[in-house]
Structures
1.
Amino acid sequence: MDYSFFQMHPHYFVNMNEILLIRNGELEMRNGDCIPTSIMNKELINDAIQSFVGRL
């Protein structure tokens, strides 16, 4: 989190600054990529996003 990167899925780390849209089960990034989010870690991911937004 110190560098705004977070593991959203076992195969993906994302830069929280580049998230454009949050949908159920995926993130749309500013570059147009859609990244799946881990269903098992849904609450952890939601908490991380809320913490990041709260720092802005």
2.
Amino acid sequence: MTVVYTRTGTPNGGKQAEALAYFKARAAAIKQHYGVEPEVKVRAGGPVGEVIMISRMKDLNEFESTKRRVIADTLTGKIPTAPDGVFAKGEDALWLEL
């Protein structure tokens, strides 16, 4: 069963460009290091400027394995973190495709 992981960020006023740059850099690093191909999108309605990164993995085992590696590599600096003050809030979600 395919797993869809989303990371959503709502930027602070005037920080939309930095939020988008961060999501693009993080998606590129994840693709380079783990072979996952995240998509980055910007919301046009609702909270305008909200940014989302969407990743698909074959199952929960692949998600868990990748997530552990991403966390470890973020701590060592291989994967970018958001600059201070860019985001007002963020949310991660896990979806199962049926």
